[in-house]
Amino acid sequence: MSTIFFLILFPLIVAIALLIFKTDAVRDIIVKVSAAVIAAGSIVLAVQNFAEGGQMYDFECEQLGTIMMVIEVILAVIIFVLGCKHKKYLVPVLACIQTPLMIWFELSHGHEIEVAHNMYLDRLSIVMALVIGIVGSLICVYACGYMKDFQHHQPEGAKDRRPWFFFLMFLFLSAMFGIVTCNNLVWMFFFWEITTLCSFFLIGYTRTEEATNNSFRQLILNLVGGLAFACGIVVLGCFYGTLELSTLISYGTAGMGAFVVIPTACLALAGLTKAAQMPFHSWLLGAMVAPTPTSALLHSSTMVKAGVFLILKLAPVLGWNLAGIMVMLIGGITFALASFAAISQSNAKRVLAYSTIANLGLICICGGVGSEAAVWAGIMLLIFHAVTKSLMFLCVGTCEHHIGSRNIEDMDGLFDRMPKLAKLMMIGISGMFVAPLGMLISKWAAMVTFVDSGNFVLVAAICFGSAATAFYWTKWLGKLSAIVANRENVETTVHGDEKFVHFTLAIMAVVICLIFPLVSKSIVVPYIVGVFGTTEAVAALSSNNLAIMCIMLAVVILMVVLFFGKTSKKIVPLYMAGANTGDNLHYMGSMQTPMEQSLRNWYMDSWFGENKMNILGLASTITILLVVFAMMFAQVIGGIM
Amino acid sequence: MVKMIIWVVAYLILAPFVGGLLSGIDRIISARMQGRKGPSVLQPFYDVLKLTEKEKITVNNVQDFYIVCFFIFILVTGCMFFAGQDLLLVIFTLSLASTFLIIGAFCSGSAYSTMAAERELLQMMAYEPMVLIAAVAFYLHCGSFKVADIVANDRMGFPYMVAAFIGFVFILTIKFRKAPFDLSMSHHAHQELVGGLKTEFSGTTLALVEAAHWYENVMLLGFVFLFFANGTTLGAVIGVVVCLAAYFLEIVIGNSFARMKWPVALKSAWFVAITFGMANIVFLYYR
Q1: In chain B, which residues have their Cβ closer than 8 Å to the Cβ of A570?
Q2: Which of A187, A386, A481, B46 to pair with B243, CA 20 to 30 A apart?
Q3: Which of A333, A279, A335, A269 lies closest to A307, judged by CA?
Q4: What is the pLDDT of residues B1-22, one digit of tens each?
């Protein structure tokens, strides 16, 4: 219990300290020390609760509820003012619905409802705490070096708002620890809204017009999600007399998921918005205007992970009911269409963003299917995605500062220009889609469970989506691996912090794949057994298959260590239709002048263009949402009549 | 376990001979269709042996690594298939191998091999859904993804999976690198962009690529065989006959078409996967 408090409060204190101490040197020390402390804290939490797998805590505190309410009101006022100031009138409207609704509820009903356990800890929270504590704080360390370069690239005389930036980063971590340990939905909602606001300010950090617009887009979409969350709480409180997540879930494990389908659907909708699923996905694409550490944080360990965390938590009450079908279909459509859209993108961050949206879609489907094996696959996806995606973002961020572009086309010859970084990126990309690395193993598990769920739409989505996934990753991988002669090495000026974080994440990405069976056996399987109460095998993949994957990975690592970059053969110039001038870069043109050769990737915009995919995605997912909620509404009316 | 080892060893030793012979027969049949006499049936072996005697040259110090990995993982794929392992595992390992081949082509930085690498990627994207769907169909029919269970299953899959079979044979044209979908690497010199994917491979490296192709073909024919396996000798005979017929069909197709543009490959393969493949899946769900 005290460790949980520490993890919530310590980042908060650090955040405030960072707001006060504004010099580079002091900030570096605070960030690095506290990152280490937070990471250690999350590991301690895991070790302490590893054996019994956590427990529920009643932890009653009247004042805390009042404090939260006061903070909520203050935040609502801030949102209201900001929305009016920037003429985004939807923002104040949403704030005016949501906050009074919650206050009315808490004053009229909320305080009467007995909450037995306000907080809890189970193995899924431990996994999340490890992801937040380790990956999240590594990103903060990376930000130390990165933000120095970032400030350096800003126009002369620009105000240094880095204290604000670091304040938000650590506040974010604090709120995330809150989300994963609160059993009282009202409390969870409080932290939920804090993360929304944190990402609003982080996205708008540069205060350019684009950044402001995108931050408000994020705010509007997530306020819609917040409103859904609030509705879920109100329905649950008024009609089911509970505010506890564990009680809601226990309906599912008792086989009464359909009984709580309305509050479940509301909460799941909130999860979908936060997990950037269609039709709400555009906020995540807009979020990349922010400095890279923000994207890395939003995509890997916080924000979107809060969304999928909630959906995976709700898995027992999802499945073959309206709420479950909604989550499955939206996840399936998002996975396929976002994977297609990624093909048409040349901006590295945008490719990463679409890939995140697609992978979150997969995790959502896993939650929606709601079977034991599906949740297993979902948690595995979550872990691997956090590590691999943060590695990719941080590599792209460093790359951008050194080659001056985040366009994949400009990464020509990166293999020679930034040899170490290119190889780390190759590890990251391979980790995203190819056997025997993590994402593929979990995608495979997910596929098996989709087939078992009997939903053929999901089968189609994963078959076609995976094919597209391999396409866009491999063409990027090819660009990175291409050896273009005579390039200058520009890697010498990378900050030590950034290098440290890159290497740590890359090693983690590989090591987790190697200890994959262990993670499954010791953490994920016990969690699922605990939630579903089943005793049969819950892992979607047999241990035999996992073992084969591990052996394959070991073979690949061994091959790389022994043979990569070694040859005894004579190296000869490339074939350029007999006209290579000898440097592999130029050929003799028909006018007998040397012409430069340049190669471009393939984007198939007319096939997989972003706009097409967006229109298709928005139309289909909005229809699904409307139909599902209309059907539930009809059921309610039918029930009353 | 012993049976499994025998199968793996047999595959490792015999597959190159079977694959090479099939390739030789292919060349004779193709030649006869074009009104030529054609080479000896052992010509593919002579070609590969000759390649190993060429001067040892390469374009950079990493290409060989990728190609060796490609070769090894093609072998691993086949071994897992013939050891009766999980079909999805086999498919994913095959994709891993193909990725190594593609990166091997990309890494040279040569215009011709880069272009072919991208085309190869397109081909992968075109055939992958249908292959996965076929695997799912086997699972729905037999209740297991394991090749060993599918082979031992006593109801022949074909009557329940006619549509998936047609779809699979369709994408086999891409996998066997036959016209009209031989976009990245062709047997026909007259329609090839220099050497396609093979442009920057030479000597032993190219020999490995050829040998891997033989291994891969045998594994793919094994996949076709699965549709007919029902644990009896009759099923096995039918399976082998259909495999040969499918191979012949691919030769005929290869010789009767010219190379088509890439959109045709993607459109038609995905169309087949959505219609034939998914229809079969839906049928197996609601049967």
Answers
A1: 55-58
A2: B46
A3: A269
A4: 899 999 999 999 999 999 999 9
